[in-house]
DNA sequence: GTCTATATGGCGATAGAC
DNA sequence: GTCTATCGCCATATAGAC
């Protein structure tokens, strides 16, 4: 499947903006990366800001439905939760551009863009996650609990390059299966988890 | 206590860089904010990059010892953990510049700066936290568990502007005492926490 | 230690040919 | 839809006076 010029620009823009941020990427950088002139970019997008916003939306829309397969199964709530965590860890590990764009938006976006991000990308996934948590009998502060899960997974992976220099680090701590299992265990049983049973 | 010119520049730089990032803050912006000429900045720092690195170090050194009072008490491990979490939530809530600078460094820093950040700022706090977790009888993957705690608190607060547009939000979820209590409870008992006892 | 003035180059954005 | 050429501005950084 080949890409239109516009899609090619957007995909390249996502990669550059996620790695360097809005201000550090020039239209000349992007033009060179897609092997076009800067003037050609302005044919597809009215200005740099509009191009950036399109790129963010493009990156997020690609991922929005990645979790639907999890929610649409007929499994018990606990198993749904387990699978969601694994899927979420996997996506954030494999798609660094997506993960970094989210973190950059958390730093740079104003209230309007936060609302777009929340309602356009996270809303449905968050609703499903909160529903499963409620099904597990945790009916108090469901929003806070779902948010905790998202926040933990995002930053656990984001902090990996830092954590390598902190005492006790092991390579195992960066493996998708390990992270997913530990996070699920933490949320089901607390830090103590299943330690006694080994 | 009055500030030297250099400290005044650094403090202002921390504020600007944390809000906008390295590339988006010009030396002219900073000069205007401290009411000097750009040339004066170059008297104190050899270039923009050196100024930025000094500002990051300045912001982090200020916070490094904020938690020592917690670790030096003679309280039970569980109470130490509870107090650390509360202190950490408080610092990250009140000092947005510090919190945002950390998140920006996670995005922008190379391996060398990650090492500086880990060893110069987080190492001792992390070691103490890991020690307390081990004292509570959780001896497996202590590093991962301590990291989870840090990651969760950081991103819970960072995600507040986004979470306001997700279903189920309540103002209470952004209060320091509430966050600290919920996080401690999560780590001690899992998501279910003390829900049954109300 | 701080200023004014300036060198040098990259920036976003546009005009107009093809 | 893409190009070359260019405008006007702002960036980092320096020179030299006070």
Mean pLDDT of chain A: 94
Strand content of chain A: under 5%
**CATH fold call of chain A:** Tetracycline Repressor, domain 2
Radius of gyration of chain A: 19 Å
Quaternary form? homodimer
Q: How do the helices and strands follow one another from N- to C-terminus of chain A?
A: HHHHHHHHHHH
Domain count of chain A, please report it. Answer: 1
> How does the helix and strand content of chain A classify structurally?
mainly alpha
Descriptive notes:
The structure is a homodimer of 198-residue chains. In chain A, helix 1 crosses helix 4 (48-64) and helix 4 runs parallel beside helix 8. In chain A, 35% of the residues are buried. The first copy, chain A, has helices spanning 5-20, 27-33, 38-44, 48-64, 68-71, 77-94, 96-108, 111-135, 142-158, 160-163, 176-189. With 198 residues, chain A is mainly α. Chain A starts with a helix and ends in a 9-residue tail after the last helix. At the A-B interface, helix 7, helix 8, helix 9, helix 10 and helix 11 of A face helix 7, helix 8, helix 9, helix 10 and helix 11 of B. Chain A binds a DNA duplex (18 and 18 nucleotides) through residues 5, 26-28, 36-40, 42-44, 47-48.
Task: Describe the secondary structure blueprint for this structure.
Two copies of one chain form a homodimer.
Chain A: H1 5-20, H2 27-33, H3 38-44, H4 48-64, H5 68-71, H6 77-94, H7 96-108, H8 111-135, H9 142-158, H10 160-163, H11 176-189
Helix pairs in contact in A: 1-4, 1-7, 4-8, 6-8, 6-9, 6-11, 8-9
Chain A binds a DNA duplex (18 and 18 nucleotides) through residues 5, 26-28, 36-40, 42-44, 47-48.
